Amino acid sequence: MCGIFAYVGEEQAAPILMEGLSALEYRGYDSAGLCVGGRCVRSVGAVEQLRARLGDTMLAGKSGIAHLRWATHGEPSEQNAHPHADCGQHVFVVHNGIIENFRELREKLAAAGHRFASETDSEVLARLIEAHRRAGADLEQAVCLALKDVRGTYGLAVSCAEEPGTIIAARMGAPIVVGMGERAHFVASDPSPILAHTKHVLYLEDGEVAVLTAKAHRVFSLDGTKVSRDVETIEWGVEQIQKSGFDHFMLKEIMEEPDVIENTIRGRLIPGQGRAKLGGLDSVAERLAKVKRIVVVGCGTAFYAGQVGEYMLEEFAGIPVEVEVGSEFRYRTPILEEGTMLLAISQSGETADTLEAIREAKRQGALTIGIVNTVGSTIARETDAGIYNHAGPEIGVASTKAFISQLTALALLTLFLGRQRTMSEAVGKRIANELLALPLKLEHILLQHDELCALALRYKDARDFLYIGRKYNYATAFEGALKLKEVSYLHAEGCGAGEMKHGPLAMIDKNFPTFAIALQDSVYEKMRSNIQEIKARRGPVVALATEGDTGLADLADDVVFVPPTLEMLSPILAVVPLQLFAYYISVARGLNVDRPRNLAKSVTVE
Ligand code: G6P
User: Fold this and answer.
1) Would the CA dihedral through 530, 535, 537, 538 be positive or negative?
2) pTM score, whole prediction
3) Strand pairing of 367-372 and 464-469?
4) Buried-most residue among 49, 125, 207, 221 (CB within 10 A)?
């Protein structure tokens, strides 16, 4: 959410910054801007609009800062676009996060004669730095003093027209990664824009500041203590953040799903013993054996993955599980008695609400583990242990392959915890073998993309959509609806099929189609009855059925098939047609599939 990129080195900065912004675009696209050599260019919209605005403007200079905005305070306008400057246009700031006390600071600064050009909270940062410089501080001191004045969250980069060879970056609650190039340094919200230049990075921790020149870097905490941090190597290749011939990242990422499962399970199964080997949990294995209750926290798609995990873990590991969205967990009074473990699920590893839930759990002394895709992210670092998804970078704002990998990781965790408890070897072997069989089954589903495209064309003009499922595919229904909402802007609702009769059924008529997940599992007959209830109200039904099930063709208007698998793993297959359906509806409606309006990939504000 909001993307920051900065460069200091020996090349011209503007082209590097523009290329970096393109790689970061999934973080925000309400407005974009950059500042090089003390000159700013900003525009509403995303990188293309900024490029058009730049036109032939030469921004000469070997360092600069750039930003993509996801609006929080103030509408998406050029005035509110970053970088923000001080009154004298000397100091420039790009910021991701929220300055909570900005009103009070703004009033104080205005009373002291500062004139504000935007409605943003971020502008106070530039003005505060200016105020401290006027009072005699040098740039570095002024940045540190300003950061002590603010309350809230920030990941930021600062440049100063009078010190063109220096960029200062700082972090409090919003991610900052520093790229360590040869005679160059980079600052970014995540590694994607850095990868084209270097794979060597260091991650700032909260309360840390980095002062960067082309040849040197210094990291220290706000109180001035020097910090020495290991340089890490990013595993991702630059090709993973390119579309590689696909029209959209969303389609590319769905097509990668068979590989994603392979990558998530690689080296982690001992099929002959029906066990999972999870190196990331070794250090806490003994504590895991004693866990009596699990609280799962996630947001959006990760939350729905958690709901599937609840069913897996309760049925096969025998551990009571509750699942909650991060934004609610931390605002009630969660009681995490001894033996409770918090399991955080997050693709980005940066979602503020999930992160705060982890911090609350840690305050209460609970064991925290993560299922995280982004290596080195804040959640990965702050949890006690965890499982990396290994899904590779996900760029499309609507999560697809990450969901598949989250479910796969949850199945591995279930196997791990189940075998620590009462799960038999035979059951363990069955789960392990079926996990190994999933990639081929998934490939088989993906071959149906033309049929799903045709189906989408038939339904693209519907205004509303209901998605229903039960048991393991209860959450799949909600995830299917979320996909459609995100990328098509259609009204879509997920509903437990058994709950329809308590309200949602009232909406059904001949113009209100339902996607019913009706696989041949333990709730099949119940799902058939629910489909009948909809048909009796003339609602069109698309059924998702198990291959070989000929019984649904008479009942439903359209049927999509997926191969049979274990019930606990069935969401991994069932969600794929729902993802493709949403994708093709979005394409048919001519929308921006990868960057849906108003959304952002990594939500680092609460
Ligand atoms: C945003 C994204 C969703 C994602 C959610 C949680 O809303 O658009 O796709 O599911 O954040 O993100 P996380 O990175 O924690 O999985």
Assistant:
1) positive
2) 0.84
3) unpaired
4) 125
* CA 595 to ligand 1 center in whole angstroms: 13
Instruction: Say what the alpha-carbon torsion angle 123, 129, 131, 135 is, to the nearest 10 degrees.
Output: 180
Identify whether 144 is a catalytic site residue. no
Could you tell me which CATH class the domain 448-594 is placed in? alpha beta
Mean of pLDDT over the chain? 94
Q: Which residues of 114-132 are buried (b: 16+ CB within 10 A; e: fewer)?
A: bebebebbbbbbbbbbbbb
Helices 570-588 + 425-446 axis angle, to 10: 20
3-238, CATH topology level = Glutamine Phosphoribosylpyrophosphate, subunit 1, domain 1 (3.60.20)
d(CA 582, CA 488): 7
- Nearest partner of 499 among 477, 524, 484, 522, judged by Cα: 477
**Neighbour count for residue 191 (Cβ, 10 Å):** 26
pLDDT in tens, 19-74: 999 999 888 888 999 999 999 999 999 899 999 999 888 899 999 999 999 887 77
Sequence ranges of the domains in the chain: 3-238, 243-444, 448-594
> Which alpha helices (H) appear in 185-295, and where do they start and end?
249-255, 257-265, 285-289
> What is the spatial distance between Cα 244 and Cα 240, in angstroms, rounded to a whole number?
8
397 lines ligand 1 (CB under 6 A): yes
User: In angstroms, rounded to a whole number, what is the distance separating the alpha carbons of residues 98 and 424?
Assistant: 50
Q: What is the pLDDT of residues 503-549, one digit of tens each?
A: 999 999 999 999 999 999 999 999 999 999 999 999 999 999 999 99
Is 601 designated active site? yes
CATH 3.40.50.12780 is held by the domain 243-444: no
H/E segment holding residue 435: helix 425-446
577 in contact with ligand 1, CB cutoff 6 A: no
